[in-house]
Amino acid sequence: MPPGFGNAIFICEVYQLIGKRLDAAAMSDGKDKASTDTRAPDRPGASATAPSKVPSEVRQAPLARSSTDADVADFVRRMKELGPQVAVGRGRLIFAMDATMSRQPTWDMALALQADMFQAVKAVGGLDVQLIYFRGTAECRASRWVSDPDALAALMTQVHCAGGYTQIGKVLSHARAEAAKRPVSALVYVGDCMEEQIDDLCGRAGELALLGVPVFLFQEGADARAEHAFREIARLTKGAYCRFDAGSAAQLRELLAAVAVYAAGGRKALQALTGRGARQLLQQLK
Hints:
By secondary structure, the protein is of the alpha/beta class. The chain has one domain (about 5-30, about 65-285): Rossmann fold. The protein is about 45% helix and about 15% strand. The protein has helices at about 5-25, 55-60, 70-80, 105-120, 150-155, 170-180, 200-210, 225-235, 250-270, 275-285, and strands at about 90-100, 125-135, 140, 185-190, 215-220, 240-245. Strands 3-2-1-4-5-6 form a 6-stranded mixed beta sheet, sandwiched between helices. α3 (about 70-80) crosses α10, α4 (about 105-120) runs parallel beside α9 (about 250-270) and α6 (about 170-180) packs parallel to α7. It is globular. The two termini are about 25 Å apart.
């Protein structure tokens, strides 16, 4: 294969996905807005008068399978494809989470995992983090950029679950807008389902890929439709996907921490971090 041919195929694929999204947008009624706080959720058949439903009532039933090391192995394999992080100035990481009602049963566990992710980089420094979450029918909010992990952990504890639909498209669009202003090292997303058009999400993921923003997606549970979408977003952005549940919480805590440290200081910072997650990433990045 000629040099650079693989990259050319990837970029063509990204542009095809973006073109598909633009064609779909041209046929719409033009009501879809790019505003983070005001646009209605991206879901098929939505209308202003549609009755509110708790997401758990309409979501696909999860597959009856337990978490294995296969997802983690695939996750670290994708980290290898990123290559060494070369940061200019402070790293910037966007941390996004689904705060819809279906996540309520394990919300406290998820908050603890997410808080531990940033405690791991406290000693390393060099990382600014922005929190973005969605819930309800149209609420999608982003925090200011925060450099203190304790402040971010406190901010996350103020978020509570509310019934609604996923708004992953808004998250991807927000990340694209931030990356257009200043480079973003990575986008981390934690959620359990996907209730939007996958082609639309892939188009937005392609735009992030062109800006060099990898997306790391952590799925709680085993919703098949969400897994398919999350894996595709990770593939397009050259990020990674991993599934977790209560049985794999400790392992995912270390992987989350390793991603944050990698975004902050690259390979050198990751080498200084102890734990299984860091060792797994270092082994794949050699």
